[in-house]
Design goal:
Structural class of chain A: mainly beta
Helix content of chain B: under 10%
Largest sheet of chain A: 7 strands, mixed
Order of helices and strands of chain A: EEEEEEEEEEE
Structural class of chain B: mainly beta
Radius of gyration of chain A: 13 Å
Number of strands of chain B: 10
Order of helices and strands of chain B: EEEEEEEEEE
Helix content of chain A: under 10%
Largest interface: A-B, 26 and 23 residues
Number of helices of chain A: 0
Oligomer: heterodimer
Strand content of chain A: over 45%
Chain lengths: 110, 113
């Protein structure tokens, strides 16, 4: 079945460490996105990418970095510069027909 | 980017129709209205979308007003499994040809027995 895979589902890191969240899709979608969700809040866009080797900042890009070396993959790195990294992170992809979301990664920084 | 406004919460009795409103008064002529729902700690699930005509699928119906400034998502026979946060989203255009979703606060629908 086609879809988006985010791994791991739960991730724990110590403060000051960088951490990379994985996002892989086999839908052949060109566009991919990363969102952050805090408790009781909506989704805020971190980064998005239309094609390989191209990506754009979203509304809250500070403290995050991404790469898009392959069409299928769009990893997100949460750097030590991100002041409040503990959150639920969602990856999505889209085509002209619509958007598909992954199941999310819950990151906890202690 | 067009923004959306939704009530923060609604209740609905099981078996009854759930009507979820959304205002998008600054929507542009070529922007679509999308509805997604998110069950706790999962990724949002696509429900339905439309441009200006009413739409219906196996999950729901979407009614868009003639001036396109508001819409209503209708779940005809709500069940307990429909309890979720429902997002009304207007599809915007980013830089170049990229499209990105701007999410509002959503409506938390609680379906009760």
């Amino acid at each position: 079945d086609g879809g988006i895979t985010q791994s791991p589902k739960y991730l724990f890191r110590k403060e000051g460490q960088n951490v990379t969240l994985s996002c892989e899709q086999n839908l052949n979608h060109d566009a991919m996105y990363w969102y952050r969700q805090d408790p009781g809040q909506g989704l805020r866009l971190i980064y998005y990418s239309q094609i390989v080797n191209d990506f754009q900042k979203g509304d809250i890009a500070e403290g995050y970095s991404v790469s898009r070396e392959k069409k299928e993959s769009f990893p997100l790195t949460v750097t030590s510069a991100q002041k409040n990294p503990t959150a639920f992170y969602l990856c999505a992809s889209s085509s002209i027909y619509g958007y598909t979301f992954g199941s999310g990664t819950r990151l906890t920084v202690v | 980017d067009a923004k959306t406004t939704q009530p923060p919460s609604m209740d609905c009795a099981e078996g009854r129709a759930a009507n979820l409103p959304c205002n998008h008064s600054t929507i542009s002529g070529n922007e679509y209205v999308y509805w997604y729902r998110q069950i706790h700690s999962q990724g949002p699930q696509y429900i339905i979308h439309g441009l200006k005509n009413n739409e219906t699928n196996e999950m729901a119906s979407l009614i868009i007003t003639e001036d396109r400034k508001s819409s209503t998502l209708i779940l005809p026979h709500a069940t307990l499994r429909d309890t979720a946060v429902y997002y009304c989203i207007v599809r915007v255009k980013g830089t170049g040809t990229a499209s990105k979703l701007t999410f509002g606060t959503g409506t938390r629908l609680q379906v009760t027995l």
